[in-house]
Amino acid sequence: MRLWAALPGTRPLVVDPFCGGGSIPLEALRVGADAFASDLNPVPVLLNKVVLEYIPKYGRRLADEVRKWGEWIKLEAEKELTEFYPKDADGATPIAYLWARTIQCEGPRCGAELPLLRSQWLAKKTNHSVALQLVPKPKTKRVDFQIIVRQRDGWTDQANPKTKIENSKFDGTVKRGSATCPCCGYTTPVARVREQLKARHGAANDSRLMAVVVTRATEQGRFYRLPVQKDFHAIERAAARLEEWKKSHKGELSLVPDEPTPQGGGSGAGRAFSQRNYGMDSFSDLFTSRQLLALATLVKHVKRVGELANRNDLELAEAVQTTLALAVSRESDHLNSGCSWNSTGQKMQHLYARQALPIVWDFCESNLFGGSVGDWRSTVECCLSALKAVDFSASPGTVAQLPAQNHSLPDDSASGFVTDPPYYDAIPYADLSDFFYVWLKRACPRLDGAALTPKEEECIVDEVKGKDNAFFEHTMQKAMAEGQRVLVPHGIGLLVFAHKSTAGWEAQLKAMIDAGWIITGSWPIDTELATRLRARDSASLASSVHLVCRPRENADGSVRTDAVGDWRDVLQELPRRIHEWMPRLAEEGVVGADAIFACLGPALEIFSRYSRVEKASGEAVPLKEYLEQVWAAVAKEALVLVFKDADTASFEADARLTAMWLWTVNAANGTNEKGESADEEGEEESEGSAKKPKVTGFILEYDAARKIAQGLGANLEQLDSLVEIKGDTARLLPVAERARSLFGKTEGKLSTKRKSKEPQLDLFKVLEDAESDGNFADASVSRPGETVLDRIHQAMILFAAGRAEAVKRFLIEDGVGRDQRFWRLAQALSALYPANTDEKRWVDGVLARKKGLGL
Fold first, then answer.
1. Staple 25 to which of 35, 126, 449, 667, CB 3.0 to 4.6 Å?
2. At residue 176, what are phi and psi to the nearest 5 degrees?
3. How far apart, in whole angstroms, are the C-alpha atoms of residue 472 and residue 419?
4. CA dihedral for 746, 751, 754, 756, sign (positive or negative)
5. Distance between CA atoms of 821 and 813, rounded to whole angstroms?
6. Alpha-carbon distance 592 to 670, whole Å?
7. 761 pLDDT higher than 50
8. What is the dihedral of CA 481, 482, 483, 485, to 10 degrees?
9. Which residues, 6 or more positions from 824, have their beta carbon under 8 angstroms from its beta carbon?
10. How many whole angstroms separate alpha carbon 592 and alpha carbon 825?
11. Tell me: the pLDDT tens digits for 189-232?
C-alpha cells in the first residue's frame, strides 16, 4: 500500500475500467482502499452495484431481506406453477426432464421420427449404471425407449428385471451433427439436420421427452422412469398458459425475450455462436414453453418485490429487487434448452459451462421446485452464499457504466490503475451477456430497457462486427491513455492478461506503450483453470500474467515524448535482462508458456522507457520488430535452462525446437493420473453428439511456434515430418505418427487421408509393412535418421514394437549409440516428455539399454 500512498488521513483510490465480475475492486475494498469500478456493459455494472455498493452498505440486512423475499417468490410462484411440475403418484418428486430434439429420417421410404442423442447413458457409475435402450418401430415410424439397468450378470429391463437385454450399445444417434436412424440405418447428413431444425427454430418446443429423473423422500439417490401421460398433459397446459399470457400481456417489453441472438461465424469471438445455424434467431427460441412460463413468472414476482419490500427504505428495496433479478438471470442459465444431463454426476449442467451458445441435441430441463440443481431455492441460496462471502465491514465503492476510453474521473485522481481488460478475440463478452440482460431488464428497474447491451465501443477483435486488430489497438490505446491520465504521477498500474496468441499480446502491449506506460515487470499468478477445454494438449497459460507499469510522464503530468533510445543499446541490454530474469522465474517454478510471457515485462521495460527507439538511420523501431527480438532472446535463454549444462550448439534445429516445444507445452498443462488432460465438467461440443477425435501431439499457437523456432534458428515449414501446421495452430507430431516417415517409403508427414485410415499407434503394422517392402532387413534399420532426434525416435519406435534385437543392432552395429549426443538428447527428452505418456516410457526404455550394452 505504500506504493499507493494517498494524502494523510485518506485512502488510496483504485480504478478498474473493465470491472467485469468485480474481483479487483472488491479486493481493493477488502484491503482498505477506495474503489471505482466501471464497465461499458450494464450486466457487470449491475453485479458490481450489488457487490461494491449494496453489500457494504446494508451487510447482513440485505442477505436477510433477499432470503425472505426469495422464499416469498417461491411460494407465490408455486401457487401458479405447481400444476405444471406434478409429483408422481407414489410421491416421488421429478427433479429433471430429459429431452431430445428430433428430425425426420430422410432415408428412402423411412421418414421415422429420429431423436437426436449424444449418448444413452442416464447414470454411469461403477455401482449404479442406468441407460436408455432404443426400441426401433419402423412400422409406426418412431423410436421408443426402455430403461435398462446393469446387474452383475448383464443388462436387464428396469420394468421387467427378469428380461435380459442383449447387444446393448450407448453411442447415441448423432455424431458430428449427422444423425443415424435406428429404424433403417440411414444417416441424415449434418446439413439436412440443420435445415430441419432451422425450420422449427431449434425444435426445443417439439422435442421428445425421453425420461424423467426423480427423487424419493425415503430413499437416497436418483431414480429414472419413462414419461407418462401426466407429464405430457402438464407440458401441454404450460404451453397453453404461456400463449394466453402473451395475448393479455401489456407493457413496453414483450413477456418473453424476442430480442435477436448473436450472429456467429468466422474466427475469434464469432466462433462462440452456432445457434443461428439451427434457427434459434431470438432468445425465446433457446427455451421451451414451460421454461419461458417459469422465468416470466419469476420476473413478475421480482417486480412485485420492488413494490412491496421496505417502503420506508426505497434504496434497500431496490437493492433487494436488483439482487433477486440477478438470481432470475442465474436461473435462466439453468433453465433453458442448452443444459445437459451429466450421467456421471447424475445432475444437470448449466448452459455456460464454456463461453459459448452451443447446440445441445439432448437437453435437461430442471424442475423449478424440485429441490435439486437448477431449482429456484438453490439459485437463491447461491446468491446468499455470495452475499455472505463479502466483507460486510468494507466501505462502499463507486460503480458507473462508462466506456474505458472515456472515463469520468479527473486527472491525477487515482493511486492505482488495476484492470483485467478484454482478451483480444478470445471472448465475445457483450454478446454472451445478452443472454442474461434480456431477463434482467424485464425484472430490474435500474436498467433502461435498451434492446441489447452496447456493442459499438466494446474493445474486442470480432470479424463478425468488423472489428479488426487495428480497432482493438486504437480502442485499447485510448483506454490505456485514460488510465494514465487519471493516475497520479507516482501511481502504479497493474494489468492482467492471459491471451495465448502473440498477436493478442502484441496488440495489448502496443496500446499500453503508445498510451504512455513504462512496463516494469511481469509476474504469472495462478488464476486460470488448467483443465479447461482450451488448455488441453496446448500451450494455454496456466496463469494470468500481471504486467506492472508506471506512467511515462514529465513533472507536469504530460506524457514524455522526447526520450529517444538507441536501437543498438536496447538490443545489447535485452539478452542480459532475459538472462537475469529467466533463471529467477525457474527458481520460482515458473516455466513453459508462463515463463515466456512473464519475461515480457523486464524486456519491455528497456523499450518502453523511451517515447521512441531509433536505428542509426533515424528510423523508428516498431514494437513488433522489437518483440521479434524478445521472442528470440527468450527462446535461446530457455533452451539453456532446458538442457541445463549441455552444449546446445551441438544439437540440430529439430532437437532444439522439440525440446523447447515440450518445455512450453508440458509446463502449461496439468494431467490426471492417466496422463491425459481432463475436460472441464459439463462442456458440450457445439456440434455433434460424440466427442471429437482426440488430437494427439503437442499444440502451440502457430505464430508463437514460428517465433520460438525463429529464435532457435529453425524453420517450421522445413520440418514437415516433425511439425504439422493447420490453420492458426502448429502440432508437434507424437513419435508414433513419425513411424512411417522414419521407416517407410513415404518421406515427410503423412497425408490427412492416410492418417485417418492408419491406427495411430499401430507400430507393429508400420514395421511389418516396412519389412515386407524391404525397407529394413531382418528387423533392423536400413538407414539411420539424418538427425540425432530422428535416430532417437527410431530407437523409441523399435523399443515400443518389442524389437529388442533390432534396438541392440541399431545402437551397436550401426554405431548410433556411440554418439554421446544421442544419450544427452535422450536424457533431456526423458525429463521433458509428460509423465505417463508413451514417449516418456519409450525413451526411458531406450536409456535403460545403455548400461547393459556397455555404452
1. 35
2. 50, 35
3. 16
4. positive
5. 17
6. 12
7. no
8. 90
9. 643, 646
10. 19
11. 999 999 999 999 999 999 999 999 999 999 999 999 999 999 99
Per-chain mean pLDDT for the chain: 85
What is the rounded CA–CA span in Å between residue 222 and residue 204?
A: 25
Helix (H, G, I), strand (E, B) or coil at 796: helix
* Residue 272, phi then psi, degrees to nearest 5: -75, -10
Q: How many CB atoms lie within 10 A of CB 807?
A: 26
Q: Are 696 and 834 in contact (CB under 8 A)?
A: no
pLDDT digit string, tens, across residues 683-711: 334 343 334 445 578 888 787 788 778 77
| pTM for this entry | 0.82
Task: Look at the block and give the residue holding cell 455424431.
Answer: 175
Contact 65, 306 (CB under 8 A): no
Cell of 759: 491406427
Maximum C-alpha span of the chain: 95
Whether residue 225 contacts residue 157, with contact meaning beta carbons closer than 8 Å, is answered with no
Decide: helix, strand or coil at residue 481: helix
How far apart are the C-alpha atoms of 92 and 225, rounded to whole Å? 11
Neighbours of 282 (CB within 10 A): 17
Per-residue pLDDT for 559 more than 90? no
Q: pLDDT grade, residue 754 (50/70/90)?
A: very low
In 588-644, where does DSSP find H-type helix?
592-598, 600-608, 623-643
**Angle separating helix axes 289-308 and 314-334, nearest 10 degrees:** 170
Amino acid present at 417: F
- With DSSP H G I counted as helix, E B as strand and the rest as coil, what are the percentages for the chain, rounded to 5? 45, 20, 40
pLDDT, tens only, 235-264: 999 999 999 999 999 988 999 999 999 988
What is the residue type of 473? E
CB-side neighbour CA atoms (13 Å) of 242: 22
What is the distance between the alpha carbons of residues 28 and 105, in angstroms, rounded to a whole number?
59
Is residue 768 classed as helix, strand or coil in its secondary structure?
A: helix
Rounded distance between C-alpha atoms, residue 71 and residue 78, angstroms: 11
